[in-house]
Backbone:
């Protein structure tokens, strides 16, 4: 059974723990300015029960959350205009240990590498926060990109920023105090999400171009090598917000048409192999261990079995109290940035009955298709 503890007017953070089947293991729009988050442990109070199937809430803490990343024992959460750092050593009792000063805009995306957090800060570009002391994070550098920074990925001393109409911007962050742009390339629509694997950056490109694949072997000269466009030049057919890459496939969260699974064996010629149309509006996705975890807007967290990419199937969900924007995985737990509903940390029980069919939680058939 899953419960949500009320801790403030618009302040939740939820943490979800994963219990996967035997043999499977976990591996690897701007909102209103919130009040300054309160440091400390989640307070006790009344509880709210949410609809769930194979998912159990194990912890939460306050703040209107739109982005989340996890490294080691800490979760880094975009809480409105602040970067908030949580100690999640005990996921059932996350503790806020530090928070940044007020940033210029609502945080859209967060990536953490080493001692720094890299924040996609909307119209104010890339902000770099020193988190070497989690109790005292401080901004040490920034680069004001020309567009709207929605997402960021970091690899090899470079930050790759999905910058809306300004495409992909490549920022040298080898000196965090003095970041500089070294490369850029346009995308057909609006770069909204980015993932980097090897020599390629994968861009969730807003409107009709669902996915753009960019060669970044030379960061100074990124160039598009492949596109996936499922519906011709019909910009009204979908809007790609986020992308994750695992096992030779790209998983794209499309706001209007669900989770798209794209074979990346040939980056110059990507091909779709499967689609799962979630009940809500997918904004974020993370993938590990044969499962895709989708932040599905008002329909919360959806867990999709993608072990057969051609036939994805939902095996669990947690109907979060807010609107799920982002999702991160670490140490057997799922962290969901739930907009005004906060950040949730949940346990996921993906089990089967003796005949091999997914076990259905009592809530499994209740209002599953309602938005």
Residues:
């Amino acid at each position: 059974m899953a419960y949500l503890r009320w801790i403030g007017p618009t302040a939740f953070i939820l943490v979800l723990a994963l219990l996967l089947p035997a043999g499977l293991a976990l591996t690897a729009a701007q909102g209103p300015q919130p009040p300054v988050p309160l440091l400390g442990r989640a307070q006790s109070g009344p509880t709210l029960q949410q609809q769930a199937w194979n998912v159990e809430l194990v912890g939460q803490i306050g703040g209107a959350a739109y982005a989340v990343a996890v490294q080691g024992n800490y979760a880094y959460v975009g809480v409105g205009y602040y970067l908030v750092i949580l100690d999640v050593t005990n996921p059932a009792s996350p503790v806020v240990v530090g928070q940044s000063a007020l940033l210029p805009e609502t945080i859209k995306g967060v990536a953490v590498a080493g001692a720094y957090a890299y924040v996609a800060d909307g119209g104010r570009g890339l902000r770099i926060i020193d988190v070497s002391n989690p109790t005292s994070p401080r901004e040490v550098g920034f680069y004001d990109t020309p567009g709207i920074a929605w997402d960021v990925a970091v690899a090899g001393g470079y930050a790759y920023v999905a910058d809306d109409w300004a495409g992909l911007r490549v920022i040298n962050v080898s000196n965090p105090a003095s970041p500089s742009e070294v490369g850029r390339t346009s995308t057909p629509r609006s770069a909204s999400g980015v993932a980097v694997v090897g020599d390629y950056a994968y861009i969730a490109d807003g409107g009709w171009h669902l996915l753009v694949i960019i060669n970044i072997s030379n960061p100074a000269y990124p160039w598009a090598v492949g596109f996936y466009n499922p519906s011709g030049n019909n910009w009204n057919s979908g809007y790609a917000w986020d992308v994750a890459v695992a096992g030779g496939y790209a998983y794209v969260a499309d706001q209007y048409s669900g989770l798209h699974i794209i074979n990346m064996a040939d980056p110059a010629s990507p091909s779709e192999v499967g689609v799962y149309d979630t009940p809500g509006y997918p904004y974020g996705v993370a993938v590990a261990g044969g499962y895709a975890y989708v932040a599905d807007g008002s329909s919360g967290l959806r867990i999709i079995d993608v072990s057969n990419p051609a036939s994805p199937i939902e095996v669990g969900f947690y109907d979060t109290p807010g609107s799920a924007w982002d999702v991160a995985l670490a140490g057997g737990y799922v962290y969901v940035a739930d907009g005004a509903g906060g950040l949730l940390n949940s346990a996921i029980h993906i089990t089967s009955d003796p005949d091999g069919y997914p076990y259905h939680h009592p809530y499994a058939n209740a209002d599953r298709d309602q938005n």
